[in-house]
Amino acid sequence: MLERGGPRRVRTLFLSDIHLGTRGCQADKLLDLLRHYEAETIYLVGDIVDGWQLKSAWYWPQLHNDVVQKLLRQARKGVRLIYIPGNHDEFLRDYYGTHFGGIEVVEDAVHVSADGKRYLIVHGDLFDVIIRHARWLALMGSNAYDIAIWVNTYLNSIRRAFGLTYWSLSKWAKLKVKNAMKFIGEYETTLAAEAHRRGNIDGVICGHIHHAVIRDDLGLRYINCGDWVESCTAVVEDFNGQFEIVKWAEAGLQTQEQDNMAAALSAAMPSNADCG
Question: Is pLDDT of 259 > 60?
């Protein structure tokens, strides 16, 4: 867990899957992170605003507006902000090449790190078979996910009342299902293959599947930023070109407690092999 002292200067900050406009968005934690980091460049790697949810039911509390204003202030201060739309904010894909309040909107980007490595930056939904070929199924899945997040919100309000730390029900369920794990692995392999296909690329940085990780075993470096609904993660690059995942959790014991609780629940449930 990162010590929350004064602002830390970093070369680049990567954020994805914030989902502003949904009740599951943990905007307060994101604002806290933005107060503790100062970056020269910020990449917004898709699904920053959830247009799908806003179309069905408008939800835009002050905290979500505060996030937007914070990012716009960063741009006015001279920070370079690059926005790569995802599937939930696909309405911005009609505005490639334009600027909004100093924020550049692009289809994808190539980021050159401090050590000269070249990273392809994409949201990743265009390499998700369900999104590309069964949009109705993706929308149905999104609604089910929203319900899980709603349940999770109330579950954690009860946990807080008992002095317990945050635990993600949907994240635990996703990681327990073998088909979900297979999907994550195939997605990571597909993104790495696309980066290889582009040529002269040393890595890929993406979002979309809400699974923060840095991998070096796919023939190049694969980095996923995670999300601000469940895991509250970001990726930062320092001035030596080193990348790390920042987990902005409620407390330093969160990860260990998640592991302990998942293990206990796993012991009480059928194994993946028993589920088909």
Answer: no
